[in-house]
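[#protein-structures] MJ: dropping Mycothione reductase here for a structure pass
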Amino acid sequence: MPHYDLVIVGTGSGNSILGPEFADRKTAIVEKGAFGGTCLNVGCIPTKMFVYAADVAATPSVSSRYGVDERLEGVRWTDVRDRVFGRIDPIAEGGADYRKNHEDNRNVDVYQGEGRFTGTKQLRVSFPGDRPDEVLTADRFVLAAGGRPVIPDVPGLAETGYHTSDTVMRLDELPKRIVVLGGGYIAAEFAHVFASFGVAVTVVNRSGALLRQEDDDVSARFTELASKRFDVRLERKTLRARRTGGGVALDLEGPQGAETVEADLILVATGRTPNSDLLDVAATGVATTERGHVVVDAHQQTSVAGIYALGDISSPLELKHVANHEARVVRHNLAHPDERITSDHRFVPHAVFTSPQVASVGVTEREAAATGLSYVVSKQDYAGIAYGWAMEDTTGFAKLLADPSTGRLLGAHIIGPQASTVIQPLIQAMSFGLDARTMAHGQYWIHPAMPELVENALLNLPLD
Ligand SMILES: Cc1cc2nc3c(=O)[nH]c(=O)nc-3n(C[C@H](O)[C@H](O)[C@H](O)COP(=O)(O)OP(=O)(O)OC[C@H]3O[C@@H](n4cnc5c(N)ncnc54)[C@H](O)[C@@H]3O)c2cc1C
Ligand SMILES: NC(=O)c1ccc[n+]([C@@H]2O[C@H](COP(=O)([O-])OP(=O)(O)OC[C@H]3O[C@@H](n4cnc5c(N)ncnc54)[C@H](O)[C@@H]3O)[C@@H](O)[C@H]2O)c1
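AK: finished. structure tokens for Mycothione reductase:
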């Protein structure tokens, strides 16, 4: 039974831990799928490459407002797909090869199999094919095994067949009709991608709004705009999935009674769940929350000394920049056990790369009101800044919340072109404690650029 100083389970953000500071330790990394994890192989990176192509495909639909008439001649789906995976797959293979064969990693053993705890600090790894299982023990473990899509308990769904974000990007041909189950990040991004490529998209959601974790004003605006582009069915219970002569069908129950949606395929996008159960972290004594997230302290250590966790297996935020931040904390704490640092989750931003883009940091107005925070609000439309005129934007806006006594920002929410980029100075201000007035007046804002949206939103705050 091989014994290690350190074993890492998962090669997403977990793969970035093994640096030169561990060269004198006996280490191993265990991965059951493609090297690089969700973000590289089936998450952030491929989706954003598809979204970029979708944004390009969607331009003719709006160009006439500038007096420019364009036509989309066609979408070569397999070329779109192969551009993405032609770039990504070699990176995953190169990552595995580096860990297995490069001399930097002579102290690293790579196990390409599935790990499952069988006792305290004891991990059984099973491999595809005939290779017998191996049991590894280690002084320290890092749990970086991420999560997986949740499949709702809909009668007939398994027999009918469905896609998730893990599979839908590798389709051999573009469907004509797609039904997306769910109304969160993944639903919003893929609905935009497929609709831009000419697919008829139906979105079926349980609740009454899309992107409902966003500030209510943003969620309402996105739901309104999405309803013009896609067939959006809200407040629907999915009773049954079934095959039809020409494809698939979902039988729904909604405010107007029973109805059926037909399509060529179903994309399930109803959230993700951490992999702590499949890894059986309980067998090594690691505690989890009710939703299955591994419980960690501020140093990212689990309930067992010497076992750390990071990313989606322990964080309900489920974001790559969070997993990367936590990996840096774990890496430091493993290398410097007497000078451990803590992770910082104060101002975690996110963006939804749909159309229009959505980006957010800090509290929503709903959260501010619910927690009794004292706050003031401002709003600025893209339509009210010069660059918004250039784009003929009539629907985007920024909404800010600030503390009236200090002027510090509490939350920022943007829906509109390049929201994921436009929001960055607000994240910076919140992270470094810059108050809204100093931020607005203490620097030049390039005219007439898109960040004037932020400048005006700051100036609109009723402070003083
Ligand atoms: C479609 C999609 C789009 C996304 N887009 C964005 C985005 O734009 N921006 C953003 O910030 N985030 C995005 N995310 C979220 C982001 O991908 C995750 O937050 C991030 O990848 C989590 O990293 P991780 O290291 O915790 O886990 P992962 O990257 O999931 O890595 C876990 C690894 O562990 C392996 N593993 C699991 N169990 C075992 C086991 N028992 N034994 C061995 N190996 C195991 C898995 O195969 C996997 O490779 C997206 C996610 C999805 C699904
Ligand atoms: N741009 C990004 O950063 C990005 C992109 C994609 C995914 N992600 C990460 O991946 C995670 C998972 O994304 P997601 O979109 O699957 O989850 P989500 O939590 O964002 O949304 C799930 C949606 O499914 C709906 N739902 C749940 N059960 C349902 C059912 N039975 N029928 C119909 N609707 C149902 C919910 O109401 C909700 O709208 C996100 O939380 C996010 O952190 C991030």
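MJ: nice. The chain has a mean pLDDT of 98.
AK: one more thing. The chain is about 30% helix and 25% strand.
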